[in-house]
Amino acid sequence: MLAEYSGHGLMTTVTADPIPLVLLDYADPELLEEALTEVARIASTGAFTLGAEVEAFESEFATFCGTDHAIGVSSGTESLHLAFRALGIGPGDEVIVPANSFIATAEAVSLAGATPRLVDVDEDTQLLTPDIVRRALTPRIKAVALVHLFGRTGEAREIAAVAREAGIALVEDCAQAHGAACDGARAGAIGDIGCFSFYPTKNLGAWGDAGAATTNDPALAERMRLLRSHGEQPRYHHRMVGTTARLDALQAAVLRVKLRRLEDWNTRRRELAARLTDGLAGLPGVTVPAPVRDGGDHVYHLYVVRCADRDGLRRALGERGIASAVHYPFPISSTEAYASLGTPPLPASERLAGEILSLPLHPHLTDADADRIVAAVRDVVEGQSTPSRSLGA
Ligand SMILES: Cc1ncc(COP(=O)(O)O)c(C=O)c1O
After folding, report:
1. CB 3.0–4.6 Å: which of 75, 82, 163, 286 could bond 209 by disulfide?
2. Structural domains counted in the chain
3. Cα separation of 222 and 240, whole Å?
4. How far is the CA of 145 from the centre of ligand 1 (A)?
5. Cα 165 to the center of its chain, rounded Å
């Protein structure tokens, strides 16, 4: 019997053979014990807020990302929100945001008082391109939020050059791309600031909500530190209007234990993705993730295929005990929250939203599980002469 973590706050129970979308740390008893020992150590000190444990994690995470600074915060959303504020972006400003991200990327812009300019993406990589960014530039645009969606780094270097030339900031949304390489650097070390989520299901996940920002800019790092804790430095000297968005010491302790394993987990994710892609290659009606370009990387936070009858495939996989999910079923521009922006049609994002399906992929998945997933998808798709009719049945 295993507990399946199936989304923000949702716990469901599955029995015996089903393959859940993701397995968390309960699936690794050795890791669990090590992290619990660290949690007990922190609890016995009573040092729960900022302090030595958070600083140690920040130093280790900055080293891992190849940046001078890492600032621990309370979530990925806060990391992005405070990054925009630290960059001085606010009312009257606009930020380029891909429409096919999790809504938090846009929300962070709104929380800073600015307006997201939602744009389309390249249909193969599902990422922004330098051309898309160039075409969206206007005098109001003050930054671009570059999302390394699903764990893939695209043309980040080229986009950084476009941003530099235009005099706007580049904020990397690395919530799904911990450790992903990009032309010799790592996600979070390419733009002005990198923003990470450690939501439990992420490649590096805490035991609750947590996040971090990475940067080489000491002034930006200082503003992030002030903003996350009431603008306070020193105690009761409030230098700017901040908030409560600190990383908990307990989360930092868990993250330190897990950071030591991240490289191996990402390697395992890539291996499993290759196995799924090999197994599904050439299957009519199913499009596997595009190959990774030279110098690029993909750490497969999610393994996402496309299928014209996505909902039929999803249903049929569910009947075979294989979980799947849709990340995300609506472009941000189509959500009620952002309808008022009146964004023009974004054809690639809209098509993708109707066809994408995330299959199970996590470091605890076995080769046999991956083969079962391949066999099930093939069984569903190949077993039918007209996939759209039969899958939808
Ligand atoms: C692309 C992206 N950006 C931002 C976030 C927000 O992170 P958090 O849930 O930690 O606030 C997420 C997390 O789901 C995400 O996937």
Report:
1. 75
2. 2
3. 12
4. 13
5. 27
With 0-12 / 13-18 / 19 or more C-beta atoms within 10 angstroms meaning exposed / middle / buried, residue 9 is exposed
Statement to judge: residues 239 and 271 lie in one domain? no
Contact 328 CB / ligand 1 (< 6 Å): no
83 by Cβ neighbours in 10 Å (0-12 / 13-18 / 19+) ranks as buried
Q: Is 177 in the pocket of ligand 1 (CB under 6 A)?
A: no
Query: Do 247 and 204 fall within a single domain?
Result: yes
C-alpha to C-alpha distance for 242 and 351, rounded to whole angstroms: 40
- Quote the ligand 1 centre to 217 CA distance (angstroms): 23
pTM of the model: 0.94
Final residue of a structural domain among 256, 276, 291: 256
| pLDDT 10s digits, 120-176 | 999 999 999 999 999 999 999 999 999 999 999 999 999 999 999 999 999 999 999
Nearest atom (ligand 1) to Cα of 108: 4
Instruction: Supply the DSSP symbol for 168.
Output: -
Cα separation, 196 vs 83, in Å, equals 11
Which tokens sit at 47?
A: 């040092």
Instruction: Give yes or no: residues 216 and 287 share one domain.
Output: no
Which atom of ligand 1 is found nearest the CA of 301? 16
| Cα angle for residues 21, 26, 369 (degrees, 5° grid) | 40
- In short, whether 77's Cβ falls inside 6 Å of ligand 1 is yes
Residue-wise pLDDT for 325-377, tens only, equals 999 999 999 999 999 999 999 999 999 999 999 999 999 999 999 999 999 99
